[in-house]
Design a protein that fits this description.
Elements: E1 6-9, E2 12-15, H1 41-55, H2 62-72
């Protein structure tokens, strides 16, 4: 798992540093305006741990989450 940053250039995301492998699946978290996004060592470790859980299939998709939230009402 890699954590990289980049910029949108001509409508495409260009990552900094070593290029990602062709066909890599990515998740994009975009900043709005001048807001900053900083991940410290603890947060990065937690993010990577949770992403590993997702790869193992331990997650709830958006539709399932919405059904569970609707059931609470």
């Amino acid at each position: 798992m890699k954590l990289v940053t980049g910029k949108v250039v001509d409508g495409k995301i260009v990552v900094e540093g070593e290029p990602l492998e062709e066909g890599s699946t990515v998740t994009v978290l975009a900043q709005e305006g001048d807001e900053r996004f900083h991940v410290g060592p603890r947060e990065e470790a937690e993010l990577l741990r949770r992403m590993d859980e997702m790869r193992k299939g331990n997650f709830m998709d958006g539709d399932e989450l919405l059904r569970k939230l609707d059931a609470r009402e």
